[in-house]
Amino acid sequence: MVAASVNIKNKKARFEYTFIETFTAGIQLTGTEIKSIRDSKVSIAEAYCHFKKGELFVKGMHIAEYDPGSYNNHEPLRERKLLLNKRELAKLLKKLKNKGLTVVPIRLFINEKGYAKLDIALAQGRKTHDKRDSLKEKDVQRDIDRAGYQ
Asked: Pairing state of beta strands 42-43 and 101-110?
Protein backbone atom coordinates (compact mmCIF):
# COMPACT_ATOMS: atom_id res chain seq x y z
CA MET A 1 0.00 0.00 0.00
CA VAL A 2 1.36 3.41 -0.94
CA ALA A 3 1.38 5.85 1.97
CA ALA A 4 -0.05 9.32 1.65
CA SER A 5 2.43 12.19 1.84
CA VAL A 6 1.33 13.45 5.24
CA ASN A 7 4.12 15.07 7.23
CA ILE A 8 2.96 17.56 9.89
CA LYS A 9 5.75 19.08 11.97
CA ASN A 10 5.73 20.95 15.27
CA LYS A 11 8.12 23.82 14.52
CA LYS A 12 7.25 25.56 17.77
CA ALA A 13 8.57 22.60 19.80
CA ARG A 14 11.97 22.75 18.08
CA PHE A 15 12.28 26.39 19.17
CA GLU A 16 10.95 25.96 22.72
CA TYR A 17 12.71 22.72 23.72
CA THR A 18 16.00 20.88 23.53
CA PHE A 19 15.38 17.27 22.54
CA ILE A 20 17.09 14.57 24.59
CA GLU A 21 15.64 11.39 23.08
CA THR A 22 13.03 10.64 20.41
CA PHE A 23 10.52 7.80 20.00
CA THR A 24 8.02 6.80 17.32
CA ALA A 25 4.58 5.89 18.64
CA GLY A 26 1.40 4.64 17.06
CA ILE A 27 -1.87 6.44 17.80
CA GLN A 28 -5.22 4.89 18.68
CA LEU A 29 -7.65 6.58 16.25
CA THR A 30 -11.24 6.28 15.05
CA GLY A 31 -12.20 5.98 11.36
CA THR A 32 -13.02 9.63 10.77
CA GLU A 33 -9.81 10.74 12.50
CA ILE A 34 -7.52 8.82 10.15
CA LYS A 35 -9.43 10.20 7.16
CA SER A 36 -8.90 13.77 8.40
CA ILE A 37 -5.21 13.03 8.98
CA ARG A 38 -4.88 11.79 5.39
CA ASP A 39 -6.40 15.13 4.31
CA SER A 40 -3.70 16.89 6.44
CA LYS A 41 -6.30 18.61 8.63
CA VAL A 42 -4.23 18.29 11.82
CA SER A 43 -2.43 20.66 14.17
CA ILE A 44 0.07 19.50 16.78
CA ALA A 45 1.39 22.95 17.72
CA GLU A 46 -0.38 23.03 21.11
CA ALA A 47 -0.14 19.30 21.82
CA TYR A 48 1.66 17.66 24.73
CA CYS A 49 1.90 14.15 26.17
CA HIS A 50 1.13 12.95 29.69
CA PHE A 51 0.89 9.68 31.60
CA LYS A 52 -2.37 8.38 33.00
CA LYS A 53 -2.40 5.04 34.86
CA GLY A 54 0.86 3.94 33.24
CA GLU A 55 -0.30 4.75 29.69
CA LEU A 56 0.84 7.66 27.53
CA PHE A 57 -1.76 10.02 26.03
CA VAL A 58 -1.47 13.01 23.71
CA LYS A 59 -3.62 16.00 24.61
CA GLY A 60 -4.28 19.16 22.64
CA MET A 61 -3.75 17.62 19.20
CA HIS A 62 -6.44 19.07 16.95
CA ILE A 63 -7.79 16.77 14.24
CA ALA A 64 -10.51 18.57 12.29
CA GLU A 65 -13.85 16.84 11.85
CA TYR A 66 -14.22 14.82 8.67
CA ASP A 67 -16.80 16.61 6.48
CA PRO A 68 -18.67 13.52 5.16
CA GLY A 69 -18.54 11.91 8.63
CA SER A 70 -22.16 12.76 9.63
CA TYR A 71 -23.11 11.64 13.16
CA ASN A 72 -20.09 9.29 13.35
CA ASN A 73 -17.66 12.22 13.61
CA HIS A 74 -15.07 12.47 16.36
CA GLU A 75 -14.36 15.17 18.93
CA PRO A 76 -11.50 17.33 17.51
CA LEU A 77 -9.52 17.80 20.75
CA ARG A 78 -10.04 14.49 22.53
CA GLU A 79 -7.22 12.66 24.31
CA ARG A 80 -5.64 9.97 22.14
CA LYS A 81 -3.71 6.99 23.46
CA LEU A 82 -0.16 6.54 22.19
CA LEU A 83 1.01 3.02 21.48
CA LEU A 84 4.52 2.24 22.73
CA ASN A 85 5.93 -0.99 24.10
CA LYS A 86 6.31 -1.49 27.87
CA ARG A 87 10.06 -0.96 27.84
CA GLU A 88 9.75 2.43 26.13
CA LEU A 89 6.93 3.52 28.45
CA ALA A 90 8.95 2.53 31.53
CA LYS A 91 12.01 4.38 30.21
CA LEU A 92 9.98 7.55 29.56
CA LEU A 93 8.25 7.39 32.94
CA LYS A 94 11.58 6.95 34.73
CA LYS A 95 13.17 9.91 32.92
CA LEU A 96 10.12 12.14 33.48
CA LYS A 97 10.79 11.98 37.21
CA ASN A 98 13.65 14.44 36.55
CA LYS A 99 12.55 18.01 37.04
CA GLY A 100 12.11 20.10 33.91
CA LEU A 101 11.57 17.26 31.42
CA THR A 102 8.46 16.78 29.35
CA VAL A 103 7.25 14.75 26.37
CA VAL A 104 6.26 16.72 23.28
CA PRO A 105 5.08 15.60 19.82
CA ILE A 106 7.44 16.56 17.03
CA ARG A 107 5.99 15.12 13.83
CA LEU A 108 2.87 13.32 12.65
CA PHE A 109 3.19 11.13 9.56
CA ILE A 110 1.72 8.10 7.83
CA ASN A 111 4.15 5.19 7.45
CA GLU A 112 4.52 2.88 4.44
CA LYS A 113 1.84 0.50 5.80
CA GLY A 114 -0.70 3.35 6.00
CA TYR A 115 -0.67 3.75 9.80
CA ALA A 116 -0.55 7.18 11.47
CA LYS A 117 2.58 7.55 13.61
CA LEU A 118 3.66 10.30 15.97
CA ASP A 119 7.31 11.12 16.65
CA ILE A 120 7.60 12.25 20.27
CA ALA A 121 10.62 13.58 22.13
CA LEU A 122 11.74 13.67 25.71
CA ALA A 123 12.55 17.36 25.94
CA GLN A 124 13.89 20.02 28.28
CA GLY A 125 12.66 23.61 28.08
CA ARG A 126 15.08 26.18 26.71
CA LYS A 127 15.94 29.40 28.49
CA THR A 128 15.35 32.73 26.76
CA HIS A 129 19.07 33.28 26.08
CA ASP A 130 19.32 29.81 24.47
CA LYS A 131 16.49 30.75 22.12
CA ARG A 132 18.29 33.97 21.18
CA ASP A 133 21.50 32.06 20.49
CA SER A 134 19.71 29.64 18.17
CA LEU A 135 18.10 32.56 16.29
CA LYS A 136 21.54 34.18 15.86
CA GLU A 137 22.97 30.92 14.53
CA LYS A 138 20.12 30.64 12.02
CA ASP A 139 20.71 34.25 10.85
CA VAL A 140 24.43 33.66 10.41
CA GLN A 141 23.80 30.43 8.50
CA ARG A 142 21.26 32.19 6.27
CA ASP A 143 23.79 34.97 5.50
CA ILE A 144 26.47 32.38 4.67
CA ASP A 145 24.07 30.54 2.35
CA ARG A 146 23.11 33.77 0.58
CA ALA A 147 26.75 34.77 0.09
CA GLY A 148 27.56 31.33 -1.33
CA TYR A 149 24.86 31.44 -4.00
CA GLN A 150 25.67 34.88 -5.40
From this structure: unpaired
CB 36 within 8 A of CB 63: yes
CATH annotation of 7-149:
2.40.280.10
pTM of the model: 0.77
Contact between 82 and 69 under an 8 Å Cβ cutoff? The reply is no
Q: Sign (positive/negative) of CA torsion 124, 130, 135, 137?
A: negative
What mean pLDDT, rounded, does the chain reach? Answer: 86
pLDDT tens-place string over residues 29-54: 888 888 888 888 999 989 989 999 98
